[in-house]
Structures are given as C-alpha cells and as structure tokens.
Amino acid sequence: NPYRSPGELLADLDVIDGALRAHGADAVAGGRLASLRGAVEAFGFHLATLDLRQNSAVHEQVVDELFRRGGVCADYLCLDEAGRVRLLGVDPVLSELAVARPLLGVDPVLSDLAAGELAILREAADTLRTFGPNSIENYIISKCGSVSDMLEVAVLFREVGLLRSAADSATRTRLAIGIVPLFETIADLHQAGAVTDALWSHPFYDEWLSHRGRRKEVMLGYSDSNKDGGYMASNWALYQCQQRLVDVAAAHRVKLRLFHGRGGTVGRGGGSSYHAIVAQPAGSVQVGLRLTEQGEMISAKFADPERARQNLEALVAATLEAPVTRRPQDDHVDVRHLEIAAELSDASQRAYRTLVYETPGFVEWFRLITPLAELSSMNIGSRPASRTNSGRIEDLRAIPWVFSWSQCRLMLPGWFGVGTAIADWTSDDPQRLAELQAMHEQWPWFRTVVSNMAQVLSKTDLDIAARYQSLAEGMDGADQLFATVTAEHERAVWAVTAVSGHDDLIYDNPALARGMRYRIPYIAPLNHLQVTLLERWRASDQSELIKRGIQLAINGVATGLRNSG
User: Which of 183, 245, 406, 551 could form a disulfide with 564 if both were Cys (CB 3.0 to 4.6 A apart)?
Assistant: First the structure.
C-alpha cells in the first residue's frame, strides 16, 4: 500500500537510519539517506505549499449565482454589507453557513465564471486528499474590505467540501484551507482592524479559528496602497494597520502571522528585507512572518548559492531579532513622532493624488513617456497590465505602474509627494527640522522609510528621463507635467539629505553604492536605445526585430537597476 503521509515514510527512513548507525555505517546514514530524510521533512509529498488567490469581486458574482440557483436570494449583489452578513452568517441557526446542504443539485447549469471557480476549488480539495494538508494552506482574497468578503469564500468552500460544519459531521467544524484577507488599498488598510475584529467575533469564524489552532494569517498589500496614496501614505497606512491587527489579535487570542506582499522596488515594499522586518511595529513578528519575492529579485537574491545563503540568513536573523528587541510591553514610539508621521502622510498623499488622479492629461503623459503600452502588448508580465479595458490609473495593475516608471528612470512611485510634505511641514524652521532628524535617529520605521526613498532617488536620472519626455513631444501640458515632477524631485532630494544629515543619498548602503558604480554606466545606453526603438515602434515600424529589441532593452534596464519592478 502507498504511504498515507510523509510521516509514515519518514518513520521507515528513521528505522533504516538507526539500523545503519547501530552497525557502524554512519557514513552511509549521514550521506544520501540524510539528504533523503531532509527532503521528506522539508517537502513532504507535495514539494511546495501553494496558495490560492482570487479577487473578492469574483466571489460576489459566484455567490450571487449560487444563491439564485439555490433559491436563497434573488439578488445578493443588491444587498448592503449588513444584509449580506446577516444572510451569510449572523444567525447561528438560520443563516446560510449554519446549514449543511449544498446550493447546487446534480449537473447544474452554471456560467463559465462560476463553473470555473468551483472547478478550481474541487481540484484543490482533491489535491489535499492526495498530497496532504500542507499542499495548499491558504486561500487569499484580493481587494478584501469587509466581513462578507470572507464569509463568501466560506460558502464556496462548503459547496466543494473544504468546509464541513458540525451539522454534517460527527466532529466539530473542519476548515481545510485558511481564509486569508488581503488588505490592499489605503482605505482597506485603515479599516482592516475593524473588519478582522468583527470577523473574529463571528461565532462561526471563532470556531474555524479554534479548529486551525487559532493561527491566523493576514496579507498586506504594498503595491496597490502605494499606487493609491503614494509612498509615505502607503508606508504609514501599513504601519498603523499592523498595530491595529496586533491589538485585535491579542483581544481574540489569535496567533497572528502577517504576510507582506512586497515587490522588488521600493514603491512596492522593496528595499532591505532585514531593516524592513526589524522596523515593523512591536508584536507584529511574534509568530513569524511571510513575505513575497518577485520578478528579477528572485534571481538577484537566490540564483547564486552563497548569495542565497546570505539573504536567507538576513531574513532569519531579523525574524529572530524583531520579537526579542521589539516587544509590545517595552517598545513605545514617541507620541509626537506618531503625530508628525500622520501629518506628513496626509500632506504627501494630497500632493501625490493631486498629480496622479486630478491633473488633466497626466494619464496620457504617463502612457507616452513610459513603455506601458508596449509592456501590455508583449505579454512580458504574468497578468494583463490592466484589470479592465479602461485607461484609468485605478484599474491599472500596480506592477506595470511601478515598472514603467522605473524604465524611464523617474521612479515616481517611490518618492513623489514626500518632498513637498517635509518642506511644507518644516517651513524653514530649524526646530522642526531637528524634530525630523530626531525621528530619523530614534525610530527604525521612519529611518527605513527615508533610507529606502533615498535608494530610489539615487537611481533616478532626470537627464535620461528627459529623453523619454521627448516621446510626449506635441502633447499639450507635457512640459508642465515634467517640470512639476522634476521640481518635486529636487524637494525630495533636499528632504532626504536634510533629515538624514548626509549629502550622499546611499551613505548607509555601501554595497549598493559599489554595485551602482559598476552597473549604472551600462544601463544608460540601454535607456537611450529603448527610447529610439520606442519611437520607431510607435511610428509603425513594428517588426519582430524592433519588438525583440524593446524587450531586451526593458529586461536589461530592469536587471541593471535590480529592484525595479
């Protein structure tokens, strides 16, 4: 019979190991057998644990269809949040999650969307049965902003057997896969504490938590919050969100693990992983943490074995250090510093949104001076550049948004608005500037925010950006937009150097300084080549050779800049 679990195989291997060592064959036991035992311990039968992920809007549509098919509700989408929660699960007897019966009969006629989503979940259930509970651990809800967003997934789980309630089982509720909210926008991050508090107070959810050892994962989105409110506002919203989640988790006896959805660039949460972890709010790393590595950062950090070891050691060191040195009971940030951070966040967000969302012609200018259109048509990314067919910034995915700005060497998502916020707040007052310098010296979070922003500014090149600006020649208002951005860049550089007290933007990262000294001279020709090829491509010279040249230039610039996308 086949092994039913990795533990059974490991038990047999342990017997073999003991027998070999008992007979003096330690060299054999410590060789290939030891490697095999290590592989079984690390990878089980599934190799790598997977997460499932889908947008909350899709769940709404599927649940609406299931409720109509099952005669539960004629128009779920028209219900407000209170009505949805009431229908899904407030009443422990009468609500939808209180009953065990499925919504669909045999061979139901479903839309392609609903049929596809349920097929994926049925495949997940089959995978768990075949490869064990560690093969798929979490289901992540993108754009999660309410309690109903979480309970809708529970309804879908119940339909395919991933959730079994006490009503249909001899045992208590069994939740096979953890339901993980992903809070992404500034607004969602602000209300994450209230949403999780209400959710964990829910009688059904509390039982699900108990079934899974009261361990709960919550994912935080860096990319969309940055696109939504700019660099400083995003970082401040993420910091406050983590503080609230730590408090809510303590109140509900939840072992909270935060999942940081970081990208390579600073505009998407990039920068030094070590400093980012130790700068997290006290209590946010008590049960470990998860984070993503994406794009070119995977090869940059882990392609070479020695570099991979160094990066993993830095992650482990920070994860061990943070809960010891940043304990909630004795780690307190100056209240005045918190007030200043909130003021700077609000001011920087106003400046950022004024440019990105309120300035006429900005979207057209952005599309002209960056290779966004070419990225969208060349299938370079893993997903479409935009979530819809609209040209709005709101519907553009965060990865092409940030990646496009890095290609033209403006890196706008990593600094715009902060210079204005700091300049206006200090108002040439030496005492106020001294307060910011004290914040930089005493508060790891603020120091990391300033350091990462300085890193982005060091890779910004206005001369090269001016070449990309030529792609918008003839557009009304293009020159004024470029002048606005360059003026803000000057304020941002001043802000970083004034607050840190160092004229060198990357004074605290000698390794990066060395790398840039060697790499940057080779990137500039690729930028100029890219502009020339974009001009030809947009002038209808869309040959395969030109297309290939643009792709190579894009890849070369991204590789040279390292944390660009």
Answer: 406
In sequence order, the β-bridge partners of residue 174 are 164
Amino acid at 475: M
Structure tokens that stand for 563 in this block: 């944390």
206 contacts 172 by C-beta, under 8 angstroms: no
CA distances from 221 to 43, 143, 226, 292, 509 (A): 28, 9, 9, 11, 26
Q: How many whole angstroms separate alpha carbon 129 and alpha carbon 142?
A: 26
* CA count, 13 A, side-chain hemisphere, 339: 5
On whether the CB atoms of residues 400 and 223 are closer than 8 A, the answer is no
Please give the Cα distance from 89 to 67 (Å, whole number): 14
Look up the pTM and report it: 0.87
Q: Is 231 helix (H, G, I), strand (E, B) or coil?
A: helix
- Would you call 70 exposed, middle or buried from its count of C-beta atoms within 10 A (0-12, 13-18, 19+)? middle
User: How far does Cα 465 stand from its chain's mean position?
Assistant: 28
- Residue 202 tokens, joined: 């829910």
Burial class (CB within 10 angstroms; exposed 0-12, middle 13-18, buried 19+) of 474 = exposed
Distance CA 415, CA 238 (A): 16
**Cα distances (Å, whole numbers) of residue 343 to 93, 414, 447, 518:** 47, 19, 17, 39
- How far is it, in rounded angstroms, from Cα 319 to Cα 289? 8
Q: Which residues contact 182 (CB under 8 A, 6 or more apart)?
A: 53, 140, 141, 142, 143, 144, 219, 220, 221, 261
DSSP 8-state code for residue 183: E
Question: Where in 165-234 does DSSP place strands (E)?
Answer: 174-175, 178-183, 215-221
Both tokens assigned to 268? 């998407």
Length of the chain: 565
Q: How far is CA 175 from CA 12, 200, 204, 205, in A?
A: 30, 15, 11, 10
Can you tell me the distance from the alpha carbon of 192 to that of 205, in angstroms, rounded to the nearest whole number? 16
- What's the DSSP call for residue 160? H
Residue by residue, DSSP assigns 387-403 as SSSS--GGGB-HHHHHH
In 3D, which of 233, 232, 339, 247 has the Cα closest to residue 286?
Answer: 247
Phi, psi of 327 (to 5 degrees): -85, 140
Say what the pLDDT of residue 564 is.
53
Mean pLDDT by 10 residues, the chain (565 residues): 90 97 94 95 92 95 94 93 86 70 85 96 94 92 93 93 68 80 92 93 82 90 87 93 93 92 61 76 83 76 89 88 73 87 96 95 95 75 56 79 91 94 95 95 91 90 95 94 97 95 84 78 92 94 91 87 63
214-243 in b/e form (b: 16+ CB < 10 A) is bebbbbbbbbbbbbbbbbbbbbbbbbbbbb
245 close to 544: Cβ distance less than 8 angstroms? no
